[in-house]
Design brief:
Number of helices: 17
Number of strands: 3
Number of domains: 2
Order of helices and strands: HHHHHHHHHHHHHHEHHEEH
Helix content: over 70%
Oligomer: single chain
Strand order of the largest sheet: 1-3-2
Structural class: mainly alpha
Radius of gyration: 31 Å
Distance between the termini: 78 Å
């Protein structure tokens, strides 16, 4: 009942819808940014949006979200085009171009913000909230703007899915097919700028970069297919938004934006640790299993060579001798080989210590590992 009462609150509904819209568009478009090795792009575009926010406020004369987001989109797009121009016409790498664009436009935004603060209009406009986000200030009319931007971006992704996919993975081949690679590259960059614009009021300029990158990075751990990765990134983004909105609503005094980023970061950590095939835990277990298997193969081939040297397929190798050869306790390895039916334990009087002989299956596997039968016992 308490949860139903909470969800019936008009302000909380706005925050939840806005956070999920942000997670949706960030997850989808952030996937392309991560795969194109442009993770810094979200950081650049979010900081480059600050002068646009200020210009939108100055032009509208008030905190009009449409004007502010339009200004943010314009300066974000200019920063993206400036970065593309730098990397295409000079020897600068992408990361250097992004860094230059970020510094230049953010510095310009700080100058504008300082000017507005000096005139006393910043408090009325609430511009400082765009630095760190202020989800509670979202209105239903703001959601229509965010929803429209999200719908346009998703429609463009669906319409040019094949082209964007090809440009992302093999731009050289795309150029040989006659595709306008530069135009598609710019289009993708501008669409990421759209995602940044959607999240400015929710998480702010400072944290928006993480929202672009985190869901995509988490999704990348779970799949090698672009369509699955994009779908998972969208889900992870929306779950992060929902979690941040609900926690901030139930725990008064906690900001929604940072909670959304913390939720997304938690999903990234879980994915990095436990994603099948790529997670650190599974990779560690696989390396351990490979190490154990390698020890088993080495001991098995050693027993085979001893039998071949003595020209006796049933030659009983003393365990202490095998231990001395490897300089460590080999009983666990021998037990695993015994469980697999590759060796058998025998008595070899008058010695009382354990001895091991190869079974027919063990001889066959050892020969397969060695790749020849020249030394068949």
């Amino acid at each position: 009942m308490a949860m139903l009462a909470l969800l019936s609150d008009f302000t909380i509904q706005n925050v939840i819808i806005g956070a999920m819209l942000l997670g949706l568009i960030s997850g989808v478009l952030g996937s392309f940014a991560v795969l194109r090795k442009q993770s810094l792009l979200g950081d650049t575009l979010s900081h480059a949006a600050l002068p646009g926010i200020c210009l939108g406020f100055l032009i509208a004369g008030s905190r009009n979200l449409g004007a502010i987001l339009a200004g943010a989109l314009v300066t974000g797009a200019l920063a993206a085009l400036f970065m593309v121009l730098l990397t295409r016409t000079t020897r600068l790498k992408t990361d250097a171009g992004l860094g230059i664009a970020l510094s230049l436009f953010f510095a310009l935004g700080i100058v504008f913000l300082t000017h507005i603060q000096a005139t006393g209009g910043a408090a009325q406009g609430g511009l400082e909230s765009f630095l760190f986000g202020q989800a509670a200030a979202i209105l239903r009319s703001d959601l229509w703007v965010m929803g429209t931007i999200t719908a346009i971006a998703l429609a463009l992704v669906a319409l040019f899915w094949k082209e964007f996919k090809l440009v992302t993975f093999d731009p050289v081949f795309a150029a040989t097919l006659g595709l306008p690679v530069l135009a598609l590259d710019i289009a993708l960059t501008l669409m990421i700028a759209l995602a940044v614009v959607v999240g400015l009021q929710m998480v702010g300029v400072v944290l928006m970069a993480a929202m672009v990158v985190a869901p995509a990075v988490a999704a990348r751990q779970w799949s090698n297919r672009l369509d699955v990765m994009v779908a998972l990134a969208a889900i992870f983004g929306m779950v992060s938004g929902l979690f941040g909105a609900l926690v901030s609503a139930t725990a008064r005094g906690l900001s929604t934006g940072p909670l959304i980023i913390l939720a997304a970061s938690a999903i990234v950590i879980v994915s990095l640790l436990f994603a099948p095939g790529r997670g650190l835990v599974w990779s560690g277990l696989k390396r351990l299993e490979d190490k154990r298997a390698l020890r088993g193969r080495r001991v098995l081939t050693t027993l085979y060579r001893l039998a071949a040297e003595h020209k006796d397929p049933a030659y009983p190798a003393e365990q202490a001798m095998v231990d001395a050869y490897y300089g460590l306790e080999t009983r666990p390895v021998l037990n695993r080989l015994h469980q697999r039916g590759l060796i058998a334990q025998v008595c070899h009087m008058p010695e009382q210590t354990p001895h091991w002989v190869l079974t027919d299956q063990g001889i066959a596997e050892a020969e397969a590992l060695l790749g020849h039968r020249d030394d068949t016992p």
